[in-house]
């Protein structure tokens, strides 16, 4: 049972890239299972910072094989740009190390345009998508009208499929949205060139994964986004269009549940959300602004300021269950230094009733009032601390309370962006 699944326990941006980098030292194969370049994973190693959107962060480790799984939607132009960037930073990018499933779906220029057009047409109820074409690409996948990455083996067929898709989208842009059409020739040429570049990376990733499992190798499934953005388990429609929870790893890569022995949930020491949708513990005033500044809470993918708020243990308990989490990595604990007190939501009030479970109904989650427990803050800079016992008493109390509320152990705590800024809790 050598598979570890890594999931975000909140609304994404929990610091999964950094945790994947930490787990990579005990990993032979690292696989992305869902989403596309809506994700943004930042990993700092010494002087170098790697900003990844599609490629698993295992690529930075020379002995790790990386997979882009069939559950993903891939913009070939963005993938080529990311491979060039990594190669420019001295990372070995070769078809021996990186494998793309032929069953993933392609994000075309049509999907990008539709994402923007649909968001604008939603007006005040916009989802706040990353506008990377994610929703429209998954919709085409489900409607069985998408373009498979496997088509890239024949760049001319691929270019024709992309062109046909653009022409279909042009009809919608003109007739439904009253927008100008996409001029197909430029993007199609770029897509053909990208197919030529990416075709050598296509491989039967499911077979490859099983061969590695049979050889006793260790696999890490790298999640993107977070539990509360999951298409089935988040608060619809303010979700992404893929399965970002543990179940998505099984379907997005093609193996059974008996292979999984560890589900690591990444939990930020406070909460953030980009885009619209319910966020019970959101802080809209000076405290939230302070968290945003201290935590540099601006999107890796879009640069948007993230909404910030106190840790929500109601949502965390939900995430533990939905994913079958076995342990937690707590990130960005250093950001909370300097607050006189800290709050954790341990329950909600809904229409005058006290509740301890996250409501299913989005409108109800919009209405809940958090019930807070208040803990003392700490003033010390903890970014240089490497042992649990060296943390200030108030910091330890905060960590222990989160662990008790989640009901599973916190295995690692990150106290800064650098790889070494971590405290192992054994
Ligand atoms: P989409 O995935 O671009 O369709 O966006 C749907 C929702 O998910 C929006 O609220 C986005 O802000 C959010 N989202 C998508 N990817 C990420 C991510 O990697 N981190 C945080 N939020 C994300």
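^ Assign residues to that structure.
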């Amino acid at each position: 049972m050598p598979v570890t699944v890594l999931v975000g326990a909140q609304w994404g941006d929990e610091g999964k890239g950094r945790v994947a980098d930490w787990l990579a030292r005990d990993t032979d194969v690292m696989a992305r299972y869902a989403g596309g370049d809506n994700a943004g994973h930042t990993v700092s190693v010494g002087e170098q910072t790697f900003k990844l959107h599609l490629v698993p962060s295992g690529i930075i480790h020379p002995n790790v094989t990386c997979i882009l799984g069939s559950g993903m939607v891939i913009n070939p132009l963005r993938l080529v740009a990311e491979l060039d960037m990594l190669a420019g930073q001295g990372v070995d990018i070769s078809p021996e190390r990186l494998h793309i499933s032929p069953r993933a779906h392609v994000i075309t220029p049509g999907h990008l345009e539709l994402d923007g057009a649909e968001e604008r047409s939603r007006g005040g109820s916009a989802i706040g998508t990353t506008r990377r074409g994610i929703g429209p690409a998954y919709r085409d996948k489900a409607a069985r009208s998408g373009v498979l990455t496997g088509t890239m083996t024949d760049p001319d067929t691929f270019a024709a499929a992309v062109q046909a898709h653009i022409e279909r989208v042009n009809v919608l842009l003109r007739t439904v949205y009253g927008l100008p059409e996409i001029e197909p020739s430029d993007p199609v040429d770029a897509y053909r060139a990208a197919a030529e570049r990416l075709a050598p990376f296509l491989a039967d990733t499911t077979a490859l994964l099983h061969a590695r499992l049979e050889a006793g190798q260790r696999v890490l499934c790298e999640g993107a986004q977070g539990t509360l953005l999951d298409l089935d388990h988040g608060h619809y429609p303010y979700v992404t269009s893929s399965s970002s929870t543990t179940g998505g790893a099984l379907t997005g890569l093609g193996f059974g549940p008996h292979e999984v022995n560890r589900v690591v949930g990444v939990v930020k020491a406070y909460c953030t959300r980009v885009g619209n949708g319910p966020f019970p513990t959101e802080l809209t005033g000076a405290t939230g602004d302070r968290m945003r500044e201290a935590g540099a809470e601006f999107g890796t993918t879009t640069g948007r300021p993230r909404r910030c708020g106190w840790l929500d243990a109601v949502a965390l308990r939900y995430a533990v269950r939905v994913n079958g989490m076995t342990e937690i990595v707590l990130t960005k604990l250093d950001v909370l230094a300097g607050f006189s007190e800290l709050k954790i939501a341990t329950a909600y009030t809904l229409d005058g009733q006290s509740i301890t479970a996250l409501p299913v109904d989005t409108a109800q989650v919009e209405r809940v009032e958090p019930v807070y427990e208040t803990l003392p803050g700490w003033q010390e800079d903890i970014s240089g601390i490497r042992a649990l016992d060296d943390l200030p008493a108030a910091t330890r109390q905060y960590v222990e309370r989160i662990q008790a509320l989640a009901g599973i152990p916190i295995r690692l705590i990150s106290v800064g962006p650098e790889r070494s800024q971590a405290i192992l809790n054994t």
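The longest strand covers residues 341-350.
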